[in-house]
Amino acid sequence: MNINAIRNIYFLGIGGIGMSALARFFVQQGAHVSGYDRTPTSLTRDLEMMGITIHYEENTELLPANLDLAVYTPAIPAESIELKHLIDSGIPVVKRARLLAELTKDHFTIAVAGTHGKTTITSIITHILISAGIPVTAFIGGIANNFQSNFVHRQGSKIMVVEADEFDQSFLQLTPDIAVVSSMDADHLDIYQEHGSLMGAYQNFVNRIKLNGHLVVREGVVLTTDNKSTHYGLNPDADVFADEIQVQNGKFSFEIHSIHGDKCAVQWLIPGRHNIENALAAVSAGLILGISLDRLCASLGTYLGVKRRFEFRICQPDLCFIDDYAHHPEELKACIGAARELFPGKRITGVFQPHLFSRTRDFMNEFAQSLSMLDEVLLLDIYAAREMPINGISSAELLKRIPSDNKWLVSREKIIETIVGLKPEVLLTLGAGDIDLLVEPIEKALTQ
């Protein structure tokens, strides 16, 4: 595939966070970009403002002529009329993962994998490299606040920073120079069936690191490589570790120790010990590229996070409202635990929208346990995304299993008045579905 020869490209599912970053890349390349998505969002509106033509109904008559390439996301069902038409028309059609692999294959590539933390680590790496004067091209799975975008490109870039997504085994198309693996918790069992298969896929990903490449892996994650490796974590036995962790005035501070024996202090704006680990992963990659630890620590102090990753929407003495993408039991634990550490003694209310029937089925008890960490639980119905309902799997069933007296199943129509009526002290909105569309209305209602 000759990327430079692509002048007319179409994205089926262009509003997805990964697809939209690729669309931005091709606009920057001077190509004509168009696409389809189910519903308009702030992301698609941004793309349209860049000159991208988007339609919101599946209609083969709206497909542009003379396409060089069509790209689709795994979220697009096989029975999609546009996808079938494109394939039948003989136009080259590829999955998003294949296109990303083609873009990166001739570049020095840092690929970030893990069931949690991918987006944050990718955005931190991008920020610290640019802060060090190293131009990069980055495809980020969220809107990085430092760049107000999920796509970053600096002139003269010879390094690509990408997320390596385990869903649909997409990451097995990449051949990175540096691979980062943050976690291998069970997830996507609709694809892998069992945890062991998922871990096997991660090992296969690590096996794809180029000769003389480098693996960066969190302490406790068991992977093998013939290449060099760096372990990071909060354990002093790790090659790169953090200690002296303190919370003061709602902010974290800590010290980072490198494999070379030096250390530096960090004032960190991003809550949660899991995010300290994410910072250590990024610093490990920076050290491999020869950036000094002092410079890396200084750039961490100006990192502003990612939208919907422990994002403060309101922070007043009587109310803090935080929005987070957490959609796995371990992510819920990390987010709620961070809120507890930041706001000791405060009543924490959480609104959770489960994402996928299959994930809710596979982790029903684990979700219930994580949600029991909240003082008050409000459950929305399951967001189906690409799935059909599964008999016996519902938010009502999940609610039954949460060991708490203060728990309610609430309709979307009633959620805002329910929240306002509870007068929360700390409010968390949690989930990867369309709960993000409720964030601004909730914020508005709470500030009126």
Give me the secondary-structure topology:
Elements: E1 8-12, H1 17-28, E2 32-36, H2 42-49, E3 53-55, E4 69-72, H3 81-88, E5 93-95, H4 96-104, E6 108-113, H5 118-131, E7 136-144, E8 149-153, E9 159-163, E10 178-181, H6 189-192, H7 195-207, E11 214-218, E12 228-233, E13 240-248, E14 251-257, E15 263-268, H8 273-288, H9 293-300, E16 311-316, E17 319-324, H10 329-342, E18 348-352, H11 357-362, H12 364-371, E19 376-379, H13 395-401, E20 407-409, H14 415-422, E21 426-430, H15 436-447
Parallel strand pairs: 1-2, 1-4, 2-3, 4-5, 6-9, 6-10, 7-9, 10-11, 11-12, 12-13, 17-21, 18-19, 18-21, 19-20
Antiparallel strand pairs: 7-8, 13-14, 14-15, 16-17
Helix pairs in contact: 5-8, 5-9, 8-9, 10-12, 14-15
Describe the structure.
The chain has 448 residues and is an alpha/beta fold. The chain folds into three domains: 7-95, NAD(P)-binding Rossmann-like Domain (Rossmann fold); 105-238 and 270-300, Mur-like, catalytic domain (UDP-N-acetylmuramoyl-L-alanine:D-glutamate ligase, 3-Layer(aba) Sandwich); 311-447, Mur ligase, C-terminal domain (Protein-Tyrosine Phosphatase, Chain A, Alpha-Beta Complex). It is 33% helix and 25% strand. The protein has a ten-stranded mixed beta sheet with strand order 8-7-9-6-10-11-12-13-14-15, with helices on both faces. Strands 16-17-21-18-19-20 form a six-stranded mixed beta sheet, with helices on both faces. Helix 5 (118-131) crosses helix 9 (293-300), helix 10 (329-342) packs parallel to helix 12 (364-371) and helix 14 (415-422) crosses helix 15 (436-447). 45% of the residues are buried. The model has no long low-confidence stretch (mean pLDDT 94).
